[in-house]
Fold this protein.
Amino acid sequence: MSILIGSHLSIAGGCHRAAEEAGGLGMKALQIFTKNNNQWAGKPISEADRSSFLAAAVKNELAQPISHASYLINLASPKPELWQKSVDSMVDEIQRASYLNLAGVVMHPGSATDGDRKAGLDRIAKGIDAIFKMVSANEPRSQVKLLLENTAGQGNALGWQIADLTEIFRRSEAFESLGICIDSCHSHAAGYDLTNACGLDRLVDELSVDSLISRVAAIHLNDSKKPAGSRVDRHEHLGLGHLTLDGIARFINHPAFRSLPMILETEKGESDDGISWDVVNMDVAKRLYNS
Ligand SMILES: [Zn+2]
């Protein structure tokens, strides 16, 4: 089997441009923002853009393309107004994803800015329930999953401990509509030291509680500029950071992860050799993958 590697690509010029670019680069997976990620509202996706996107995704055999939600969304917010805005915005994100036939929308669980973890997790679960109540009222057949991403644990960010994700699943009534996205950089920075087998085993063991591991639907494949346990979220090109090539190889070949779409979220631009970083990183991942 071959690695389902892809990247987060730009939708400048339309969502279809990202799917076409992924195909052109020889990728088999894709993540996009379906609108400007720093704004609450986005203009509707046109029908022409939608059909070009769907055609390009099929033609290039992209495995379960996904989107990433806006960075403004914070379901853990103690401020009712921001919480409600986050719920409404997430409904829009899921409906956009549904329109493009995406498999899921990745969302950071949220930041409990009042420092109260338990209350924050509760607000996230309540938010998820409110979101799916609205989604199913508008679109009863929507299959799009909300993928909770594990975080590096900067500041008051929740979801850096897998136990946070377990809690959210337990507290939410809409848990059937939830999935998980595991980010290798975030895992390492959160203290699951991926440079050794023990760190990876602990990550997988914690994901095995309540069989959460079966809900992992996507991987964010990034190296980390910061060491294990730093709780600082800085992505690095594969093999140039603290994960080491050994650590990355162990991670991408783990039976729990190896068949999932893997998305690069590393810096764009070109290496010193004038090669697109996406291609450089994709080649590293392909080389490390035991086919
Ligand atoms: Zn990520």
